[in-house]
Amino acid sequence: MNHRTIPFSFELIFILWIGVITALSLLPVPEVGAPEKSDKIAHFIMYLITCGIFYLTFRLRIKKIILWAGVSSFAYGLSMELVQAILPYREFSLEDLFANTAGIALMLLYLMAR
Reduced to 3 states, what is the DSSP secondary structure of residue 91? Predict the structure, then answer.
């Protein structure tokens, strides 16, 4: 196996994860009576994981992978918020974007410390 070959399982996990996050970001959200701001914790965790999966999937292909994992994860989160802004049943949230960014930042700090 070439040292630049990505194991298929990482690619599959990446595709599935992005699909799940996209669905959660764009489908209507039922009112479940969750505590106020609890979705910010979910955003934090989802984007921490997104950044980590991006790193694991592309670490053998992309130079400066830690930088690209952060930039790509942030761009994806921002794009999901912008799409939500045009959907009639969702809305753009700076708080969600900040929670996403905090999760990404924590993962980047972890990756740089390794």
Answer: coil
CA distance 56 to 69: 9
pLDDT at residue 35, rounded to an integer: 76
The four Cα atoms 74, 78, 83, 85 give a dihedral, to 10 degrees, of: 160
**For the ranges 28-42, 49-63, 87-101, which has the lowest average pLDDT?**
28-42
Contacts of 103 (CB under 8 A, 6+ apart): 43, 44, 45, 46, 47, 48, 49, 50, 51
Identity at 18, one-letter amino acid code: I
**Which has more pLDDT, 36 or 85?**
85
DSSP line for 6-19: PPHHHHHHHHHHHH
